[in-house]
């Protein structure tokens, strides 16, 4: 049970960080952006943000195709 709580906490924090970065405002289902482009638009460090975007992909919030991230439908 404690592992479930930790996992839920991690997901919650990641989703909050993603929304707080304003990245969803710059992404769409048709117009993908690279990590570099999104990082510059959100004014965040690219290395850490790349990990967050990859995690959002595992949560099915984003999809990735040819190094570009898209919002899922």
TrEMBL record:
Superkingdom of source: Bacteria
InterPro entries per UniProt: WH-like_DNA-bd_sf (IPR036388), WH_DNA-bd_sf (IPR036390)
UniProt organism field: Xenorhabdus bovienii (Xenorhabdus nematophila subsp. bovienii)
UniProt name for this protein: Uncharacterized protein
Gene3D superfamilies, per the entry: Winged helix-like DNA-binding domain superfamily/Winged helix DNA-binding domain
């Amino acid at each position: 049970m404690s592992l479930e709580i930790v996992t839920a906490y991690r997901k919650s924090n990641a989703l909050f960080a993603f929304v707080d970065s304003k990245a969803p405002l710059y992404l769409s289902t048709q117009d993908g952006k690279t990590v570099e482009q999104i990082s510059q638009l959100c004014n965040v460090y690219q290395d850490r943000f790349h990990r967050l975007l990859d995690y959002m992909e595992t949560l099915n919030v984003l999809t990735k195709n040819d190094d570009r991230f898209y919002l899922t439908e």
